[in-house]
Amino acid sequence: MTRVLLTGFEPFAGSAVNPSWQAVSLVAADPPPGTEVTAVQLACVFGTALEELSAAVAEADPDLVLCVGQAGGRPGVTVERVAINVDDARIPDNAGRQPIDAPVVQGGPAAYFASLPVKACVAAVREAGIPAAVSQTAGTFVCNHVFYGLAHLIATERPALRGGFVHLPYAPEQVVDGAEPALPAAMAADALRAIIGAAVNTRTDLRVAEGATH
Predict the structure, then answer these.
(1) pLDDT attached to residue 31
(2) 60-64, long-range: CB < 8 A, 24+ apart
(3) What amino acid positions are annotated as catalytic residues?
(4) Domains along the chain?
(5) What does pTM read for this prediction?
(6) Residues of the chain with pLDDT under 70
């Protein structure tokens, strides 16, 4: 059995739900074959989220960590390629913190690449009939903060661990006027199951074009 730790976030910015936690909860209730899935909800708070992530990794002792967050406005599931060492919050987090141009980890590298086969993960989601893409930026809010913190933990303390970050579109109930793309929780969960399967079974990523011009 492959031990998988999934993390999602609590709601933020006035929303009543967070699609990341909706989807993660569904996967934990019905995990992919051959996996043992633990789901943990993280606070949408700088610093606190990393403390909760570190504690969850220590307790679950996973082989694979997949952190999941909300990226409202994106039309599909996006697998993040790189985490950068900067917190630059356009809005306050749930504790009112709003760091500007601060490092996630003082003295840490400028960036880390995900230790997942990101292109194979995207291909697996598409094969499941769900829109997906490689993302070149996880932003500079708490999602990137957690992604970088996970990568730094892997680099400095758990070299055998693999992990990465996935962003989900809004849940349908968050888009009342239909002006933004949305993805039902069941489909988002299916996407995460596909990503887990690809991550578990793929060690060498696909060599296909998934870059961006800007």
Answers:
(1) 98
(2) 60/3, 60/5, 61/3, 62/3, 62/4, 62/5, 62/38, 62/161, 63/2, 63/3, 63/4, 63/160, 63/161, 63/162, 64/2, 64/3, 64/4, 64/5, 64/161, 64/162, 64/163, 64/196, 64/199, 64/200
(3) 80, 143, 167
(4) 2-173 (3.40.630.20)
(5) 0.97
(6) none
